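Structure first, sequence second, as always.
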């Protein structure tokens, strides 16, 4: 079996919650894309990263069903693990930094996949949402011409402070009913609102964002090594 590390990204202050991430530090052991896809499917993480050059930060990311040009929590996690100033992805080169307990990447919102946003009046309404049932409403068949992709339900917890409560329901068909932490949606929402955000998603994950000049957005969170 190929060796890999398991990280948890966008964790709560106590290290809980967040998204699990698989990282194959020696990507050269599986140079073929189909072999990488097969391993990502076998491991079953939301995303698996193959490191092709640890010094330059060259990475290749897969879900269980597809290769991704850019992946939010993967980049936050692997940047922390490699401790490099930038990452090179198929989408482009992005800067990274560590600031206290948070690891940050700087990415562009257009690199994120489509997302459908639904704003609610209160955090309690978001908490009470049911996971869409199989065959029920998903982000892929919403009315009124809304975008395909993750259905991102959100509400202000404290608007002046930029605090948001959110939940994400993917429509990618790989068996994930609810995403615990969706950095890509956080990028898009930050661009839409034009302000820094402190997002609590899922059962307790924390995602931080900050808009930057020239269309860049910083995305940050805590990273812990599980094994």
């Amino acid at each position: 079996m190929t060796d890999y590390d398991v990280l948890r990204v966008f964790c709560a202050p106590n290290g809980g919650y967040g998204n699990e991430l698989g990282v194959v530090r020696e990507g050269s052991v599986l140079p073929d894309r189909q072999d990488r896809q097969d391993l990502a499917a076998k491991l079953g993480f939301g995303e698996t990263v193959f490191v092709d050059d640890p010094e330059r930060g060259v990475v290749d990311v897969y879900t269980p069903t597809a290769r991704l040009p850019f992946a939010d929590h993967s980049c936050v996690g692997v940047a922390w693990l490699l401790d490099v100033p930038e990452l090179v992805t198929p989408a482009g080169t992005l800067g990274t930094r560590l600031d206290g307990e948070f690891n940050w990447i700087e990415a562009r919102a257009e690199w994120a996949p489509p997302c459908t946003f639904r704003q609610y009046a209160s955090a309690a309404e978001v908490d009470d949402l049911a996971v869409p049932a199989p065959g029920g409403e998903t982000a892929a068949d919403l009315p009124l011409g809304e975008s395909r992709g993750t259905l991102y339900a959100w509400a202000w917890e404290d608007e002046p402070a930029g605090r948001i409560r959110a939940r994400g329901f993917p429509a990618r068909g790989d068996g994930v009913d609810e995403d615990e932490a969706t950095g890509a949606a956080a990028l898009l929402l930050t661009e839409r609102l034009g302000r820094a955000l402190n997002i609590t998603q899922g059962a307790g994950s924390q995602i931080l964002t900050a808009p930057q000049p020239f269309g860049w957005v910083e995305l940050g969170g805590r990273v812990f090594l599980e094994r």
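Margin note: Residues 135-147 have pLDDT under 50 and may be disordered.
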